[in-house]
TrEMBL record:
Keywords: 4Fe-4S, Electron transport, Iron, Iron-sulfur, Metal-binding, Repeat, Transport. Residues 245-274, 293-324 form the 4Fe-4S ferredoxin-type domain. SUPFAM superfamilies: alpha-helical ferredoxin, Nqo1 FMN-binding domain-like, Nqo1 middle domain-like. This is 4Fe-4S dicluster domain-containing protein. InterPro entries: 4Fe4S_Fe-S-bd, 4Fe4S_Fe_S_CS, Ion_transpt_RnfC/RsxC, Nuo51_FMN-bd, Nuo51_FMN-bd_sf, PduS, RnfC_N, Soluble_ligand-bd.
């Protein structure tokens, strides 16, 4: 029953990747772990959810934990989130459910699911593996709020997100999926600077774009935040630099210091990933012709793209993450996957001394000026038009279930989960008339009067 409600509501993970939630829950697990770490600096959406919807979230957590037959149901959050922890503890006490709280240190990427599994259980997820291989299922705290709403018959039609940075009034927004970024910026009072850039998501794993790009963006099920900031060459380079320049600089400047490896979170929990080796391999290889089924190239497939190697580790300003992503793309083109090996996984003895504080990331990114902004007020908004993408989750895009001219209500199914495919249903987020249907998106205009 609960699984059917989750599928019908079109719930995908709110942590960023957008993995269809129901696909995770077709199993049994020893641990059901809730990611409430709000991993990326500056984002405050999960804080808001914990503070204002703790009881709803805990009720859903207990229900999913029961469905998974989990022996341990744990909310993992940061130990300094005192207000949020108090709200969760009160909800657990009120509902009298077998849910506990695990308090983590403040480091990045505490919210990476494999890092969280290690923190909570001491177990290392096998390289290129999934948490269920060590008895764990992980979901985001905001996903739990959507599951609670699904139990009440509500589909995923709206999104909570943070808008912050160089805006007049940083806020939490609750808007229909498909709302334009431009309208979100207006709700925050507009930008404090004329020529800005933006980050769709968090400073480390979000997507950077120009002001021109900004006005083409819409809110999706995975939009966790919008950060407006001054134009910064460093941020552009982290995500958008020409790949040939990245490769040329890596070949000429890598000093093989190993810092990118030593600070890699996946290496620290025992995975056989060594970014410095990939960088060295780059210097002696014809690119892309010789990127093939090679053990060192395969190590790049273990990269979680957290960005620590680029933002914090490399003293030469090189970009191991971008190199890894490039290698991963070339291997994918050739259908090459990581070859799992039966080998011991030994965590780094230095791990506890090498965790990266989020403040160091903000200092390097030039975003430290925004760290103390108050983002507490939530504003609800209903636009007159939404443009809803049919691909906003991992898996196959949804298939249009409406035609131009159709009348829809909030919650009407407009994009169907493809049969026998990984994906999610998509629903109308406003009541109105379908004005355009393409293989990529559906546009709905609100009925006036």
């Amino acid at each position: 029953m609960l699984l059917d409600q989750i599928i019908d509501a079109g719930i995908v993970g709110c942590g960023g990747a957008g993995f269809p939630a129901a696909a995770k829950y077709r199993t049994k697990a020893e641990y059901f772990i809730i990611n409430a770490a709000e991993c990326e600096p500056l984002l405050k959406t999960d804080h808001y959810v914990m503070n204002h919807f703790a009881e709803e979230c805990v009720e859903a957590i207990a229900a999913v934990g029961k469905m998974l037959e989990a022996e341990h149901i744990i909310i993992a959050t940061k130990e300094y989130y005192l207000k949020e922890i108090a709200a969760l503890e009160q909800a657990i006490e009120t509902l009298q459910v077998p849910v506990s709280i695990f308090k983590m240190e403040n480091f990045y990427p505490a919210g990476d699911e494999q890092i969280m599994v290690y923190e909570v259980t001491g177990r290392t997820v096998p390289p290129s593996g999934l948490p269920i291989e060590v008895g764990c299922v992980i979901s985001n705290i905001s996903t739990m709020l959507n599951i609670y709403k699904a139990q009440q018959g509500t589909k995923v039609t709206h999104k909570l997100l943070t808008i912050t940075g160089a805006v007049k009034e940083p806020k939490i927004l609750e808007v229909p999926i498909g709302t334009s970024f431009e309208e979100c910026l207006n709700l925050a009072g507009g930008s404090t600077i004329d020529d800005f850039m933006f980050i769709n998501g968090g400073p480390m794993m979000g997507r950077v774009g120009t002001k021109d790009d900004f006005f083409k963006q819409v809110v999706t099920k995975t939009t966790s935040g919008i950060i407006i900031t001054e134009k910064r060459d460093f941020l552009y380079e982290l995500f958008e630099k020409d790949m040939q320049q990245v490769i040329t600089k890596a070949r000429s400047s890598c000093i093989q210091c190993r810092l990118c490896t030593e600070l890699c979170p996946r290496y620290q929990i025992g995975h056989p990933i060594h970014p410095h080796r990939v960088m060295r391999h780059l210097a002696i290889t014809d690119v892309p012709e010789d990127i093939s089924d090679d053990p060192i190239w395969q190590e790049a497939l273990l990269c979680c793209s957290c960005g620590i190697c680029e933002v914090i580790a490399c003293p030469m300003g090189l970009m191991p993450r971008q190199v890894n992503n490039y290698v991963k793309a070339r291997l994918a083109e050739k259908g090459i996957r990581y070859e799992k090996k039966d080998q011991p996984l030994t965590p780094s003895l230095m791990r506890d001394y090498q965790k990266v504080p989020p403040k160091n990331i903000l200092l390097k990114d030039g975003l430290n000026q925004y760290v103390n902004l108050k983002v507490e007020e939530c504003v609800q908004f209903e636009p007159n038009k939404v443009t809803i993408p049919l691909r906003m989750h991992i898996g196959a895009p949804s298939q249009a279930a409406v035609s131009e001219g159709d009348n829809v209500e909030v919650g009407t199914l407009i994009g169907k989960l493809p049969e026998n495919a990984l994906g999610a249903n998509i629903h109308a987020s406003i009541a109105g008339v379908v004005r355009e249907v393409t293989p990529e998106m559906i546009t709905i205009e609100r009925r006036i009067g």
